[in-house]
Amino acid sequence: MRHMTEEEIHAAALSDPDAQPLTDEDLARMKRVSRVKIIRRALRLTQEEFAARYHIPLGTLRDWEQGRSEPDQTAKAYLKVIAANPEAIYQALQFTPH
Question: Could you tell me the CATH superfamily of domain 33-92?
Answer without folding.
Answer: lambda repressor-like DNA-binding domains (1.10.260.40)
